[in-house]
Amino acid sequence: MSIAGGVDLAIERGVSIRCEAIQIFLKNSTQWRGKEISQAEVDRFRAARNAMPVFAHSSYLINFGVPSPRSVAALVDEIRRADLLGVPFIVLHPGAHLGTGEAAGLESVARSLDAVFAETSSSKVKIALETTAGQGTCLGHRLEHLAAIIRACHHPKRLAVCVDTCHLFAAGYDIRTRRGYEAVMQELDVVVGKRRVAAFHLNDSKKPLGSRVDRHEHIGKGLLGLEAFRCVMQDERWRGLPMVLETPKGADLREDVENLRVLRGLL
Predict the structure, then answer these.
(1) At the top level of CATH, which class does the domain 54-265 belong to?
(2) 189/156 Cα distance (integer angstroms)
């Protein structure tokens, strides 16, 4: 949900279409620096959220795949914003190695996270590493990448995982059938651990299996199909976890309303 006009308005927008959980940005997602959040805005946000789960997505500019003090400072700032608002975790794309190689890239992600956690040692905000499609040199398109980062990080208790259905599929994990879905979820549990999963991004895919291209589509309108989402929605392992849409939408949110209707129908 958009935070235009104030973070508290994101909750208002979510409530208006009967959302049970929402994801927000903590500042403009395409800028390094954001305006300060006033105490009045914090108070309105905390009053409006009631019991609705709200989590955040980090800025798209942050790239831990290569050493970047600017990226570290940006995530430190976002964690402090999350602390103010009472947001429990921030979803983060691991980053791109930009030609240095996967091993160097994964090491860079772990060391960057260590630097962030060292500067925010009093915070309880976690970072949820997102599964990615693997475009270009992006890391995170293999479950082993996420496991390697968690193992290498000195603060593993502050790390979680966010599963994106479109990204999984584009990365080559075939969850279109119940058999395929169960195999991938078993692999997820073995490699990363199901207890690490903090949230799901429910997105269909415009691009085919293994394409390594990240293009979201409306639920049931893409190449993933409804069975994959039926499996997720009916999976007892994920009961109680927040699941959000990142599908295209207009100002009136009618696309979100339709996607929510379809997903709830699969329960």
Answers:
(1) alpha beta
(2) 16
